[in-house]
Amino acid sequence: MDDWPIIFSYTRAQAIADGVLIDVTAKAAEMGFKVNTVVTDHLYGDYIVPPAGLEGEGQSIEGRLHDLLFRTLLAAKAIRDSDRVEFDVLFLMAPGRWDTAHVVAVIGPGDQGEPVMTIMLPEDD
User: Between 20 and 30 A from 10 (CA), which of 23, 41, 84, 98?
Assistant: First the structure.
């Protein structure tokens, strides 16, 4: 297989630069994560960014990201022998209306083979 020509290559760094992956490593590190961490743009846009009209409900990107990372940390600690964990997170989507997002977090190799985490919706998987 080493002789096969590479037809297409897309690195994690390119995906972050393109906005396909959102780097949340700094916030994740504050919460105890030990690896570089990203969220897919789909998860970020659909759930982390609060929908319009929720400003008075105490919703913010920072707070919603904190909730996601906290749930990720709890799920990862509960399943120590796997590189993948699935869990649900509740997000306020309109006054009085909550959505349950089923989320997947995966540890895998980064561009240099280092361990990295990607948090996504199952359809991003």
Answer: 84
Check if the beta carbon of residue 104 is closer than 8 Å to that of residue 120.
yes
- As a whole number of angstroms, the distance between CA 34 and CA 20 comes to 22
* CA distances for 12 relative to 4, 26, 70, 102, angstroms: 22, 17, 23, 23
Summarize pLDDT for 55-107 with one digit per residue, the tens. Answer: 778 899 999 999 999 999 999 989 878 999 999 999 999 988 999 999 999 99
What's the chain's Rg over C-alpha atoms? 16
**Neighbouring-strand partners of residue 23:** 38
Q: What does the pLDDT read at residue 70? A: 97
Q: Count CB-CB contacts under 10 A for residue 48.
A: 23
